[in-house]
Write a structure and sequence with these properties.
The protein is of the alpha/beta class. The strands form two sheets. A six-stranded mixed beta sheet has the order 6-7-8-3-9-10, sandwiched between helices. A four-stranded antiparallel beta sheet has the order 2-1-4-5, with helices on one face. The structure holds adenosine-5'-diphosphate and magnesium ion. Its EC number is 7.4.2.1. This is ABC-type polar-amino-acid transporter.
Length: 256
Amino acid sequence: MTVTEQESTSAAPGEALVVLDNVNKWFGDLHVLQDIDVTINRGEVVVVIGPSGSGKSTLCRAINRLETIDKGSISLDGTPLPEEGKELAKLRAEVGMVFQSFNLFAHKTILENVTLGPMKVRKKDKAAAEKRAKELLDRVGIGHQAAKYPAQLSGGQQQRVAIARALAMDPKVMLFDEPTSALDPEMIKEVLDVMVDLAEQGMTMVVVTHEMGFARTAAHRVLFMADGAIVEENTPEEFFTNPQSDRAKDFLGKIL
Ligand code: ADP
Ligand code: MG
């Protein structure tokens, strides 16, 4: 299945896909996630915004179980997140994650970076994995660089490979944790363009970013986090033009 075929009709959000119910987590005394109740619907694009240290990364990491939670529950497509083993590996495939640092395998080619997961976890044969990888690399504009190594690519190109690599697993949802924060300004747009395109294809996305242009163009909803809690939740238009809480007003005053 290509990305184009994937949920191509669901521009509008559908049924619940990721459900966080009363999620709480502590790091020692620090209550890093506080009573988080969020439902992310199929095809929905949710932008998470908030000051540094407010728990945005921890929230993302909890959704693909890079972090455990202490109270509450998280489910994907109606099933509680698995604890371990094969099921956990499958979950990591179904929840694609793109980090600020691109995390590509330095000693593997771009093509190998994208085929490795599908062959190992999804048990695809090499020919099928390569065919799909080439389609995805073409889609993110890196097709002609497939034989190169990560260090031969710019940051923006590497991040687009990281997106293709996550997509190669046919994820149900894509998480982006500040995907453009480490990039030089001229490379930010090429990555955001790929993300906008994905959003338009109906991919379910959770995106931690302060890129307002992306939020306005692609997001259905903005969650504003502060001190481990979701303080405000609104459409991008409402959130950016008419924030309700003092915390959000103060934060927007600093970044805009
Ligand atoms: P954000 O992504 O919004 O900047 P994080 O989720 O990374 O916030 O972190 C939230 C808080 O949890 C911060 O105070 C951070 O220092 C703390 N924190 C994050 N990871 C750990 C950890 N592994 N151990 C202890 N504290 C942590
Ligand atoms: Mg973070």
